[in-house]
Amino acid sequence: MSWKATYEFILSLENFRNIDLFDQGVYYMEFSIYYQDSQQNKQYATPYHYTQNNLGFKSQSHYSDQSIFEESTILDSEQKFKSKVFSIRYCEEEVRMNDLCCFRSEVNADNNYKLTEFYLECDLIAAFTTDPDKYKTEPLKFEKLSKFRSIIRYSSEGLHEFLPIVFDKMHFCVLECSFHSLLLDFKFRNPEFLFSQNLIQSNQEKRERSKSFIEKIFKSRSSQNEDLEDTDEDDNQLTQDTLSSNSEKIKKKEKVIKGAKYKNINHFIQEVTFNFQKESVQSFYQFYVAHLKNQFSKLKRILDEVQDYSDPSNEDIIQMPHPSLIQIKDVDANSLEYYNQQIKDQQEFESQNKNHNFSSFSTKFDSNSTFSHHQRPPIQHGVTQKKKKEHLNENEQNIFINDVQREINQISGSLFQIWSQFIDLLVQKHSKLLQKYMVENNKQISERWGESIFRQKLTTTDLFTSLEDYTSTNSQIAKQFRKKFYFNNLEPLTIENLEMFPSAQEHPIFFQEIYQKRQPSYVFDEILQDPNILSNQQKFGNHLIILCHGFQGNSYDLRSIKNNLIKQYPTAYCLSSKINEDHTDKDLDFLGKNLALEIRAYIGKRYIQCLTKMTFIGHSMGGVIARAALPYLQDYSTIMYSYISICSPHLGCYANSNKLIDAGLWIMQKIHKSQSLLQLSMRDSDNIEDTYLYKLSTKPGLNWFQNVMFISSFDDQYVPIQSARVLTIPNGSKYHNQMVENISRNFKCENIYRLDVNFKLDSSIDKMIGRAAHIHFLESEPFSQMLSYCYPEFFQ
User: Fold this and answer.
1) 378 and 294 Cβ atoms separated by less than 8 Å
2) Predicted TM-score (pTM) of this structure
3) Could you tell me which CATH number the domain at 453-476+509-651+699-794 has?
4) What is residue 465's predicted lDDT score, i.e. its pLDDT?
5) How far, in Å, CA of 238 to CA of 694, rounded?
6) Is 209 left (phi over 0), alpha (psi -120 to 50) or beta?
7) Are strands 707-712 and 495-497 parallel, antiparallel or unpaired?
């Protein structure tokens, strides 16, 4: 027989958003949840009930109800939940899913049951067709396009989190979900019962019975007890029928059954408490019963937060079994810090005791064990430690066993009742709850990315004068930081996309300097914590973000940045400029005028009303083209919001210290007859003051923006770092410093962000010639995510 912990999971689906799917067709998703047992076999949770959330919701105009071809269902043979089948016809199309599915799983409730890691997988499946309506009349060939995998930690703590399911960059789309977990019950399972149940009872039968049970739970409380009793009678009858009809088959599995470690629950508790030592009995209670009670309290608090929840029948429903026998107090030793320390201590201990077997459950209950205090169930500090252990007498043992079983059953029943109310709340109010979870999730992820950002504020009277040059040492600092134990062992997220964060060795490191004239009018942390930000996104909805590619580039160069911005700020409009794709050799002023025309055409085509913010992001020469467009957009000067350039040669490339790069630019200019390269090298006139870049520095535009960020990399040898960062050079060229002064004139921005980004670059020809860092900004998914998550003040 074995001691089992029962977990409940809810996966609630809200919206599917097509961000960058190339192909029209019919799509759906399949979901599964599992954990890996001691033999690394996948043990799947059983999906047993599904319904629609947001009942009574009226579809908004940008959702297409006609895109739904088939309702969601449970795939019994595969233990998966299948979403609605829907069509995708357009870019940035949204489909409201409105699905909720319940899963259940049982794990061995040994000393590590709280640390059981579950995994959630989601397959994106599609059949490509330009006429999705064919799905209704003829079979289509479906194929798996992409897989999302996330790890779920600390499920026993009761998780309630936003879960953005994001697929790979070749199929970039996002499914907005919430995920919920509950430790529901502890059961002492008979292997004969488990084997016989699995032998004849199909998943379909299990689901129908569970579904019937759920439906009864949703009935009025007055009839609830009667329904539960009826269900229990059905369970008992099915069990008896199962055992009798399969007795012969069960006998063939006697070896499996005889392998059970414990005869009954009395034997189990006796073993793990060292023959009912009072201290170990207390630990047993805290580790199981008190923890189950804490789950009820936490879930009830959550319900209290979102509605006027009050039910006198649940008050004082959970009592201590025998407080006069053992003084047991509520303790909360279940924080993430507690478990992190538990993992560290266990790893350290196991490394020191490789030749010993400490896997037995009872060993970790022993107060004299060499395990640390964090590795066994918490013992009350108020209990006096004695050399001679006190034990419960036989009568007290029976009382303890009976009371523990009764109390677990009582708490579990109350948990299931309140869990059903929580499901009902999700069904009715999922959209509102999702906004709350979304804010919390954004804060967690931005803080995690922020672990690799070195931040410094520099107060100065001149935002364009370098106070101290740190960039030359940043590469060495980043190299050492990637080796730090702390950075390699960051606290994990409770629910984490396994593809999101790179290893410490591959992680980009940001060196952020904020040149500040005076105290800013906003505080970054307050923006993240403001619960009204995401729920009132319509305030920021009329925000147009323009992305500009560089020399011989195209609109897909900044695809990663665009996709992550759309994912993070769904109400913003994003324009990836295409108009100059075949013309980057031409005059910069011509390219700027083209971009201005493209922006005006986009605003007219999209019927963007009351545009309130306009933001530019330019890579390399694209940052200069964006500035060249500004004089032709003067009527929008009052709504210019953020300007971000990535390795852009604002002050030209004439000061490049890499002679190989200088020679390459000269050759390219001669071969391609490129006027733009001639202008960037400031060779388009014998008089520097007559060159295009110098004249551009005197024109208004950059001073219109509320937020300005210059991004560079010390390893980028294509663009001089002072040109990309727009800083004066002490004892430098008169014209260089004069251009900086021209740009800074009438600057209304109170802060200028300057980021030096260090990438872990592999050896290559590009690295040898100094080009690798320049193009890595376009290829690095972590860089794009850090930009979108960690700098919301530039995009909200």
Assistant:
1) no
2) 0.79
3) 3.40.50.1820
4) 85
5) 86
6) alpha
7) unpaired
